[in-house]
Amino acid sequence: VQLQASGGGLVQAGGSLRLSCAASGRTYGYAMAWFRQPPGKDREFVATITWTHRTTYADSVKGRFTISRDNAEKTAYLEMNTLKPEDTAVYFCAQGERRYDDFTRSTAERYASWGQGTLVTVSS
Predict the structure, then answer these.
(1) What's the distance, Cα to Cα, between the start and end of the chain in Å?
(2) At the N or C end, where does the chain have fewer CB atoms within 10 A?
(3) What is the pLDDT of residues 4-55, one digit of tens each?
(4) What is d(CA 116, CA 124) in angstroms, rounded to the nearest whole number?
């Protein structure tokens, strides 16, 4: 599967952005997730959604970000509201390694396919 992330950009603190992750190939039955890598830091988990639409979020984004998916369109989304400067990062989408896995996974090792990343910059 190939993943293409888009929707990043420059936004002021308190603003909103919606990221999209378009997939080609087999996606039905696999979890989709978003990770991010802030400047000079390691990649970190943001949110995941299973094929049955179960979700889990990092504490730092809970209540502000919403992950969703459209199986027919083979696209996952990350709606980001009330953005903060500390949300500045390159955001990556990923597809889970195991089909029909209904556990929400927050470690990068559980994801086999990755998109190229889209940069989100939040100014103060």
Answers:
(1) 37
(2) C
(3) 999 999 999 999 999 999 999 888 999 999 999 999 999 999 999 999 999 9
(4) 26
